[in-house]
Write a structure and sequence with these properties.
alpha/beta; Rossmann fold; GMP Synthetase, Chain A, domain 3; globular; binds 5'-O-[(S)-butoxy(hydroxy)phosphoryl]adenosine
Amino acid sequence: MQHKITSFDQYQKTYQYSVNEPEQFWNEIADSFVWKQKWNKTLEWNFKTPDVKWFLNGKLNITENCLDRHLEKNGNKPAIIWESNDVNEANRTLTYNELHAEVCRLSNVLQNNGVVKGDRICLYMPMIPELAIAVLACARIGAIHSVVFAGFSSKSIADRINDASCKLLLTADGLYRGNKTINLKEICDEALASTPSIEKVIVYQRTHQKIDMQIGRDVWWHSEMQKAATHFDAVEMDSEDPLFILYTSGSTGKPKGVVHTQAGYMVYTYYTFLNVFQYEEDDIFWCTADIGWITGHSYIVYGPLLNGATTVMFEGIPTYPDAGRFWATIDKLKVTKFYTAPTAIRSLMANGIEFVTPYKLDTLRVIGSVGEPINEEAWHWYHHHIGKEKCPLVDTWWQTETAGILISPLAFITPTKPTYATLPLPGVQPVLVDAQGSILQGNDIEGFLCMQFPWPGIIRTTYGDHERCRQAYFASFDNLYFTGDGCRRDADGYYRIIGRVDDVMNVSGHRLGTAEVENAINEHPNVIESAVVAYPHDIKGQGIYAFVIVDKQSIDQGVVDTDAPFEEGAGIDNSLQLLNRAAFENEIRNIVSKIISPIAKPDKIQIVSGLPKTRSGKIMRRILRKIAEGDISNLGDTTTLLDPNVVEEIKQGAGISTKN
Ligand code: WT7
């Protein structure tokens, strides 16, 4: 296992080497995989068009590297250990042999249902082993998977299916999440009314609830699997053939389909998993994300399996049946490395230490954090109470677009520092730039975080719209990949991510565009216009604050009361007006849930008569953000606004004293 860095000194040398000789560096990593044909050129790139290709003309199948190559030595090693939502339901363990067989069977099922290389397949599934099996079966047959998180609405599914013209949908009858049972098939059926490209729907039976099956279109997973053989020759793919599409929000209203390709994604997720978590053969690795997000793709499925690791999949939520579930499960499964999100830590922290103390947590060796900045208090709580001050806490910074971790400590090997993602991984070349795009030299500086050289996992395109990819990531600064994050490099050269600098919010680690939420709110018949901003939230990291203009008629007729309290869950008294107000807010939240997902529901809704706009009509979000934060000490120059009075009114409506 010569790719594993074992000392700080070796990290520094490897890092230097990876910058001086990037192609040679990555060649050596890529050499350890099973190729059907070796690549003949390592890298071709430019950040203008953009166009990045790694391991050119190589032929491979990623599932042979995730599965087949481990069978001889590790066929009986657990590949996946599944923990049910229900504490009383038995764990399911799939060895590498078993996982291989199931993936082959499902590949045959896909083939029997008309899937060929290059087809797009949508996966809308519970967190059960079948989701991982489905991801891998798509990869084995050369179909492009597009996993849609099973908390998204039918409209979101339909949009994603249509954007990529998916041919098949893989789903389940329902799913369990905490004490809820959700009818997934019903949500799919609603989406399927407007997805003409879908030919077949394969339905896994999880909850055994009653659902509709459309004859000719919908087939049962279990009956298809019964007919299928456990052998399937992995389809030969080119290094740069797409592996998957994963939709993520940006600063426009429409989520974009981030495309990752075969070889680069494989090499990068393998290498980062190995080094950041310092993978050891006997590890039980648990990443608590959902496979519907990139974290799950890279560090539940591909990264661990490429290393031959044992990976845990959890169906439930951290607070069910109580806030000790994570810790109970760590003890039960003897988890050695644990990877979760700051929002989960903060919410468990708020539940009290009595949910932690019953558990030993003595199998843990490394703990990790991902998805948003981790605040100092949460960092120390996690490090002290969960890591017992002996497990390194790796704060891993990366993005859907980067495929894997770019900036992070390597557990035990490089130093950690509370709230810092610390140092770039080998092969990663971050720079901080000012607003003009000039690269800032030296340390103790702050700027926009960019990458000046490609790594194998970099985004290749946004599906069906390459220009959008260029605009979003490569147009802001010349010859640089722009992350959208602000960042500080301290005196020691350590990186600390400050947060997004664009119109993207991060709510409980979920990325949401302000425009996306505004578009949904604007669907309400009484809403004229809205503006959404993020504000600091104790548990979620950021909450959503919506400023909403309601049509005058509804106000005059008392349909919507403009003065009532606006906090979610605020008391409702008997007066008609407050009831109207509460009902209106519910309607807004329901619309957002229906159009996007419950995760996008605004926490606060304030009714306003106007929005602060520049003379050219652009909403001044900076001002709204300040008001949402409750900080109006420095609103900046408001005299250039179209209507400066509106700011005063909004401040009063927000309950902020204007005598500051
Ligand atoms: C954005 C990417 C990467 C998988 C999960 C989220 C923020 C991510 C950190 C971190 C501070 C972080 C950034 C980034 N972010 N990790 N360790 N510290 N911020 O993926 O939905 O693509 O979001 O999440 O703002 O740009 P994503």
